[in-house]
Every structure is written in C-alpha cells, then in structure tokens.
Amino acid sequence: MLLSKSCVYGLRAALYLSAKGPKSFTPIRSMSDNLEISFHFLTKILQQLTAEGILESYKGPNGGVKLTQPGEKVTLLDIVRAIDGEAMFTECALGLPGCGVMKPCPMHDKWAETRDGIKEMLETTTLKELSSKGKKLNLRITADGGFEWA
Amino acid sequence: MLLSKSCVYGLRAALYLSAKGPKSFTPIRSMSDNLEISFHFLTKILQQLTAEGILESYKGPNGGVKLTQPGEKVTLLDIVRAIDGEAMFTECALGLPGCGVMKPCPMHDKWAETRDGIKEMLETTTLKELSSKGKKLNLRITADGGFEWA
DNA sequence: TCTATTTAATATAAAATTGTATTAATTCTG
DNA sequence: CAGAATTAATACAATTTTATATTAAATAGA
Fold this sequence. Notes:
The structure is a homodimer. Chain A is mainly α. Helix content of chain A is 48%, strand content 5%. Chain A contains six helices and two strands; from the N terminus they run αααββααα. Chain A has helices at 5-20, 28-35, 39-51, 76-84, 108-123, 127-136, and strands at residues 55-58, 64-67. The first copy, chain A, has a two-stranded antiparallel ribbon. In chain A, a hairpin with a 5-residue loop joins strand 1 (55-58) and strand 2 (64-67). The longest helix of chain A is centred in the first third of the chain and has 16 residues, at 5-20. The radius of gyration of chain A is 17 Å and the shape is elongated. The mean pLDDT of chain A is 96. The interface between A and B is large, with 41 and 41 residues. The structure holds a DNA duplex.
C-alpha cells in the first residue's frame, strides 16, 4: 500500500473541503458522516493537517475546519507530506540508511526515478482539479456516494 | 512506504540468492547473518517465496533455499507479488472498492498511470541485473556491507 | 541407528497502525 | 451566565505487522 489509511482519509477529507469551497467552516461530524469515516479518527488526522497549516479550525457553534488556501493552491503532495511524512520520497527501496547517489544500493537509480514519478504526479495535482472533476462527472468519494453534498 | 518490510527483506534475500548463483542450497541462517535480518522472520518470508514456487527448499545438512529459476528470469515484480500481493497494482488510491474505468474515483486516471509506472519498473528489472551490478560496483545490500560473501 | 543440521509449523510477544471513548477547552446563542 | 456545539487532548482498545521462541519433521553422515 503506497499511502497509509490515515493519509487516504486525509486526502478524501481534503477533497471534500475543496469541493465545499472556502466560505465557511465545515464541522468534522458532517464530514465523517458523509465520508463514512470514524469521527474521532478523522478528527485526529485533521488535527495534523491543522498543525501543518493546511487547515484552519474553529471551535464552537458554526465551527469546524476549512482549507487555509484555495484548493487550486493545495496539491496532493501537501497532504501526503503532512500525514505520511517526507520519508516516502527519500527512503531507499531496500530500506538501507543513507542510500543515495554517493552510497547507492543496487535499486537506487531505478527506484529514484520511479519515486520521482510518484512525487511529480502528487505535486502537479491540486485538490481543486480533482474536486471539480468529481463534482462535474459525479464521481465517487465514498464506497457508494459522490459529491452530492457539495 | 511503498513496500512492506517483509517484502523488502524478501527482495534483499532474493538478490542474495541471485548473487550466489544456482549451484547449491544456501542455508537461511547464513543469509540472515549476512543480511542482518532476524532468522525466524526471514524464514517465514522465504517460506512464502517457496510456496509461490520462486524458491526451492531442502531440509537437513547441506540444505537451504535456492532460486528455482536463474536470476535473469526472475523480476522484482515476481517477488513483490508473492509477498505483498497483487492488491498494490489494482487498488484505488482513495481505497474505494471496485474503482476502475467504469466507476472511477477522481484520482483514478492519474493514479492508474503512476501505478503502471511502478509496476513496469519492477517488471523490467531482474534479480540478476541488480545482483550483477551490486557485485561489480560493490554496492550495499545491508546497512554497512556489500556483496563480499557472494 | 544416532546425532547434527536444516526447513516447517506453531505459538507467543512486541510494536505500529487503526479505531473508540472520555474529558477538557473554546465559542456561539439565548 | 447557562447551555449547546464544536475542536483538542488524552486515554484506551483492537487489529495488523514485525519479531522471537519452541517444537516438529526431514535428511545427511558417521
């Protein structure tokens, strides 16, 4: 599995928020209901995104979370980095510490290239791009449902 | 992390066996010592590879494991498939069941392309290619050591 | 046949990830 | 100020992955 489950949940939530637009705060409860993700678990993941400055949160009535920047400015890489960390884009395929051009493992060259491909895909894809596509084509963002709440 | 730790251990062991050549059985104990992997854990991983027909094993004195086919014939994909399974090459990036061209998620197209890139890299790289390179250039296959036992 | 060597099988434990529950802190509304 | 709504923090539980330990089975060789 390329991305952890936490990361996948974070991506789905980020797409959700991008689809909702930047107007107001979205309560985590309605998000967890619509996305069919455990409320408390999602809360912890969103707290990470808040700590990283990707989301802004507000307590109390009419509170919730929202993207600090418009969805056009946020890439999938931003979300993945915030949750799964940078390691995925630097680590050796064979798990050897300090693997790099200076001290490579036999897989290094090929892996570095593949890894860069993954990174580039994530880096060049914005939340907005995907949430717009999802809304327009009524694609799925949950096992059985699309963007109807957006 | 793209590959599980088990899978990485399996890859390193497979490269080890490819470097040793097909002559005789290699005891798991010497492999686990040289690769600095827990003997029992490595044993279980190699049992999977044996069950998948990638390795052949033999009990008793002068026993051990060896590749059933020459290293030129075994790709990294064979090893990854045997240990981490096919899911990685078919699963949706957002974890949605049944995601595909007929019922895609917003990430489907981009992810499918990236995923195919990973798969192709694994599929076009043989054990032999990497173990030869490792031996020739004395690259690392453990945190601090290379192919000196080969 | 006995013993040492080795893989196979099973059981157990430790660690990491995922998920749930409880309480605290903040903020709006009346 | 009281109470409800909401995120934050903490603690706990379940599951999966990783790792270790024990015993069984097979085989070679003396």
